[in-house]
Amino acid sequence: MTQLQVLINQVEDKLDGLAKDDVRVQQLQSIPGVGPRLAEVVVAVIDDATRFKNAKQVGAYAGLTPTQFESGTMSRQGGISGRGNKLLRAMLVQVSWLARRCNGKISKIFEDICRGNKTRRKIAVIATARRLWVICWAMLRDGTLWREPSPPIVLSTN
């Protein structure tokens, strides 16, 4: 084992020990696809979840909202603003790519935005990352664990 790997293992062990004592990190890890590192970064960046009034503020804080271009009657949206923590944004995007495989809700969000079009995959993953970020914030704000969405109730007319 190289010296670098030994140091990485020591840091990961220390982070695991700190995460084990933090209820908020455990809370976020209840989301399928969210691991300890993303949960730690989210907790560190959000800090106090009650400081945000709504999901729009949370999305803007992470730089996951589109930029707006307006001139006269023309109004267009561009790419994401990119403000905020770059590490958080990168981790949310990577986890969103993977979470859509094991998390039904994330997968549905991704597929709804893609609309079956392969060219919309990057747009969909950014939107999914924003939604995951907002879900994490809401869970921390409310102090709840992940709940799988219940299937819709179908009433029989017979």
Task: Report the principal-axis shape.
Answer: globular
Structural class: mainly alpha
Provide a count of the helices. Answer: 7
Based on CA atoms alone, the radius of gyration comes out at 18 Å
Strand order in the largest sheet: 1-2
Q: What is the mean pLDDT?
A: 88
N/C terminus separation: 68 Å
Order of helices and strands: HHHHEEHHH
The helix fraction, in percent, is: 55-70%
Residue windows where pLDDT falls under 50 for at least 5 positions: none
Number of domains: 1
Q: Report the β-strand fraction as a percent range.
A: 5-15%
Q: How many strands? A: 2
Oligomerization status of the protein chains: single chain
Summarize the main sheet: 2 strands, antiparallel
Descriptive account of the structure:
There is one protein chain. The chain is mainly alpha-helical and 158 residues long. It has one domain. The chain has seven helices and two strands. A two-stranded antiparallel sheet has the order 1-2. Helix 5 packs across helix 6 (104-114). The longest helix is centred in the last third of the chain and has 22 residues, at 121-142. The chain is globular. The mean pLDDT is 88.
